[in-house]
Specification:
single chain; mainly alpha; Rossmann fold; 2 domains; three-stranded parallel β-sheet; 9% strand; elongated
C-alpha cells in the first residue's frame, strides 16, 4: 500500500487468507492514512452486520505502536445506522446493504461486478426480524384497506 500511495496510485489490493489479520491490517492502514496521509474520513465497508460489529470492537480496542492512546481516543469511530455522519467521526463502518439501499437488484449486481442477480441476492439479501415485521405490517395495512367498506 505504501508503494501505491507513494507513486500517487490511490488504489491497492491486499489479499490475505482467513484468520491472517485482515481487519488488523486495515485498521493499521486506516490509522496511518488518518495520521500521515491527511485523510479526513474513511469508510470501512463490510457485507454483514456482525462483521461491522466485530470491526467496531477491533477499532475501539486498537492501540497504535507510536501512541499510548487507543484508536477511539484519537479518532471517532461509528457504525452507521442512518445517513447522518457527525463531523467528529473519522471512521464510518457500514454494510454494503446500507450504502446501496434503494438500488434495484440489477444495478447492485452490476455495481458489485457479480455474474448474476441471484448471486447478489444470495450474498446480500438478508432478512432480519425487523424487516419481516415491517413487511407483515405493510401487508396487513394493504389487506385492511381492501376489506374496509367505503364510508
Amino acid at each position: 500500500m505504501d508503494t501505491s500511495f507513494a507513486k500517487n496510485r490511490p488504489k491497492a489490493l491486499v489479499q490475505m487468507a482467513t484468520g491472517a489479520g485482515k481487519t488488523f491490517t486495515a485498521i493499521t492502514a486506516a490509522y496511518r492514512l488518518l495520521k500521515f496521509g491527511r485523510m479526513r474520513r474513511i469508510l470501512f465497508l463490510v457485507d454483514t452486520k456482525s462483521l461491522g460489529e466485530q470491526a467496531e470492537r477491533e477499532f475501539l480496542a486498537y492501540t497504535p505502536n507510536d501512541d499510548t492512546r487507543s484508536f477511539a481516543q484519537l479518532y471517532g469511530v461509528r457504525r452507521l445506522n442512518s445517513s447522518y455522519i457527525p463531523n467528529d467521526i473519522q471512521i464510518c463502518i457500514s454494510t454494503i446493504q446500507r450504502i446501496m439501499a434503494g438500488d434495484d437488484i440489477k444495478t447492485l449486481q452490476e455495481n458489485m461486478g457479480h455474474y448474476s442477480a441471484a448471486f447478489t441476492l444470495d450474498r446480500y439479501g438478508h432478512v432480519t426480524p425487523t424487516m419481516r415485521r415491517e413487511s407483515a405490517n405493510r401487508m396487513q395495512a394493504f389487506i385492511s384497506n381492501l376489506t374496509t367498506e367505503p364510508g
